[in-house]
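User: My advisor, Dr. K., asked me to get a structural model of this assembly before our group meeting. I'm new to this, so sorry if the format is off. These are the inputs:
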Amino acid sequence: MSDLQQLYQTIILEHSKARNGAVDLTPLAEAVALGAASGLRVAESHQINTTCGDEVTLRVSLGAGASAETDGADSAGGAETAANAIVADLVWAGEGCSISQASASILTDTLRGLSVTESRALLDNFREMLRSRGKIEPDEEILGDAAAFGGVSRYPARVKCAMLPWVAFEAALIEAESR
Amino acid sequence: MTSFAPSSAATPPGTPAAGSQHPELAPLTNIDVERIRNDFPVLHQTVNGHPLTYLDSGATSQNPISVMEAEQEYYEQRNAAVHRGAHTLAVEATEGFEAAREKVAAFVGAQTDEIVWTSNATEAINLLAYSFSNASLGLGGPAARRFSLGAGDEIVVTEMEHHANLIPWQQLALRTGATLRFIPVRDDGTLDLLAAANIVGPHTRLLAFTHGSNVTGTLNPVAELVALARKVGALVVLDACQTVPHLPVDVAALDVDFAMFSGHKMLGPTGIGVLYGKTDLLADMPPFLTGGSMITTVNMQTAEFLAPPQRFEAGTQRISQAIALAAAVDYLRETGMDRVAAWEAQLGQRLVAGLAEIPGVRLLGPGLGVERLGLAAVDVAGVHAHDVGQFLDDAGIAVRVGHHCAQPLHRRLGVTASTRASTYLYNTTDEVDLFLATLAEVAPFFGVSTGVRR
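Assistant: The format is fine. Below is the predicted structure of the whole assembly, which you can bring to the meeting.
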């Protein structure tokens, strides 16, 4: 495979067209209210890559984790449930290059259903790999399909494209946790 | 050194102004261009296993050896602060710095004192905007009142401006209470001149527009727009960043009040830009940046300022850059701006003709047969500009991708980003053809069906 084919692996090109999780976002206030009614904490983050104008708005719905049930309290779980919370749903809207679009699509598939702790660990691993300038081989065991972005780390100018939805996820997560 | 490569020959006094004509020299051909390329070391390299094809001169141009030598020679032989000190080096540095001003002035048909050095064209526009802002606060006394703006006054720009010729005016409007209006762009990427005639009206104090679009390559009708401004007594600011490097430009003949261009887009170094202003206007303008080198008498509470251009050149100047820019001007005028323009017009037409043959590729702006700069920006259906640029880079082809600092124009044309190839005097027809052939492979690589050939 040439470097270019490494960068644009089939799975990336497929995801850039499939755009899993991409929706027409409803107004945030509505989603927050709707989520609250079913015990979900909803938040979103809008990120722009100023070099190219790519943008993504990623919306996270956090659900109570398994141990939260044992807590008994209905909504006062707060700090206790935060660590065990589950990324119940992820949706996004945006436009940009194939790398950023595929990254949002793969992020949605990869992180949906993970616990907050697991998703953070995966995010850290992804970021470290991307910033390694090709020095760190992606770990497929940990990253799953997101390992396909290993080729991107050799193109410093494109790392931002791949990171864009993940940065949005990180910010939305913090916001959701504070709700 | 080729027959076009300038030596250190000084421009003789009385040399005809802008648009140095070379009727004795035949139009440029690929053979001439190959010789020109020998003067540009950076072009002779391999990128990603392919010879570099540099098609991003609209963003920044490359430097001939003579320009780099001029800068080095200055540092080796004459480096000193200008307009200060009486020692020999200081005198030589000052002479070189001022000779550069004279040369650049002659190149664009200006008087020497009408040329103000800035760090880049963006700073030149900001210099105007902040000077007018200061005038609006009453600085500069009664003479500066002609530049003062307030509620009810209008600044007019166009929808095709580079952000550098938009945001400083937005900010000036915010600071002064003036209103910013714009001349819209039509679907074909040209200005709506009918609308312009209504927008430029009795409240218009300033009309700022680009000579040539850095996205569509369109050349705007300067005379027509100047006439609109004159009718209502508005000042005219011409962004000449994309034209001074590529066409013979005579600011006096164009009768604009102000114009600006940047050194690095015309074979010069970065860090040097040029503001042109008519003598009587510069004379009445309050300064923007203040400090050393721009004053006469200084007291603890007040200061008197020098006449232009020094009034606008506070602090230690961009000396080596100005001297190197003069070497770039030598190179261009010895090649002949009319020949450069003709060659690039040919490359520009070749670009748009070839683009029309590639399925799924949409050219932004006017097509074949319409006068244009030697550049073209396109949208490739189904493939983001960044991906197009990456694919081209893999083939050693350097182009610009994104919004090229013109978001409103892209929005108007219905795209968020585009891919732009821009040529200069050192580009061959083979390079244009290689770009076209490689661009045609983009959609298949990304698995985008281009459907019916349009």
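One thing worth pointing out at the meeting: The radius of gyration of chain A is 17 Å.

User: Perfect, thanks a lot.
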